Amino acid sequence: MLFEFYPQMQLSKFVNSLKTVTSRLIRKQFEDKLPVAHRRRHVFWNESYFIASCCGVTVDVLKKYVENQGKA
């Protein structure tokens, strides 16, 4: 995932909101396909996350890098 943010932005709050919204959407859309353990628990994602910043390259280069992840 690639996103741009302002220095004033609290990344932990962004990640928390992202996890909350995606968890709700996934549960709603795929409820019948989720394992029973995920249906009963209110926690979908774990607490961890990783964010890296980079500079010195263009956004286009970063987009291509992200798009090619997992391709061999």
Count up the domains: 1
Number of helices: 3
Number of strands: 0
Which series of helices and strands comes N to C?
Answer: HHH
The helix content is 40-55%
Structural class: mainly alpha
Low-confidence stretches: none
Mean pLDDT figure: 85
β-strand amount: under 5%
The radius of gyration is 16 Å
Global morphology: extended
First-to-last CA distance: 19 Å
Q: Can you summarize the main beta sheet? A: none
Plain-language structure description:
The chain is mostly helical and 72 residues long. Helices cover 47% and strands 0% of the residues. The protein has three helices and no strands. The model has no long low-confidence stretch (mean pLDDT 85).
Record keyword descriptors for this entry:
mainly alpha, 3 helices
Strand and helix layout:
Layout: H1 11-30, H2 36-40, H3 59-67
Could you write a compact summary of the structure shown?
The protein is mainly alpha-helical and 72 residues long. It has helices at residues 11-30, 36-40, 59-67.
